[in-house]
């Protein structure tokens, strides 16, 4: 009896992440703004079902970052707020073999309705991003 119980416990422990996976949609365009390796070292959506997250990861090339630095300083007087590596985390609401849905509540004090939703078609490698405040801001990201 102890052996059977031990086998069951070990089976449950080992099967905990049996359905978890990481999917990366790479080199994502945004509308007419095409992915260009002159600007980006990386622009990907990373879906991690074990952490229940979707991340939008953008890494600028060094030359693009330096160009943006100059523009930031000219416009804002400093580089505060400029990042070479930008990561936005979304909370996974649904995932199966075909579709993923995730949201981010920005918790903005002046705008409590500021929520972004991602709807991802894994087969077509398309991400639709919608900002709920006015429903007019919707962008399509085609990935590889």
SSE arrangement:
Blueprint: H1 2-14, E1 22-25, E2 40-48, E3 53-60, H2 62-76, E4 85-95, E5 99-105, E6 115-121, E7 126-131, E8 138-142
Antiparallel strand pairs: 1-2, 2-3, 3-4, 4-5, 5-6, 6-7, 7-8
Describe this structure as you would to a colleague.
The chain is an alpha+beta fold and 144 residues long. It has a domain at 19-59 and 86-142. It is 19% helix and 40% strand. The chain is built from 2 helices and 8 strands. Strands 1-2-3-4-5-6-7-8 form an 8-stranded antiparallel beta sheet. The longest helix has 15 residues, at 62-76. The chain is globular, with a radius of gyration of 20 Å. Residues 12-17 have low confidence and may be disordered.
What labels describe this entry?
8-stranded antiparallel sheet; alpha+beta
**Overall pLDDT confidence:** 87
Number of H- or I-type helical stretches? 2
Structural class: alpha+beta
C-alpha Rg (nearest Å): 20 Å
Task: Report the portion of residues in β strands.
Answer: 35-45%
Count of DSSP E strands? 8
Query: End-to-end distance, in Å?
Result: 52 Å
> Biggest sheet: strands side by side, in what order?
1-2-3-4-5-6-7-8
Helical content (DSSP H or I, runs of 4+): 10-25%
The SSE string, one letter per element, is HEEEHEEEEE
Question: What's the overall geometry?
Answer: globular
| Residue windows where pLDDT falls under 50 for at least 5 positions | 12-17
* Biggest sheet descriptor: 8 strands, antiparallel
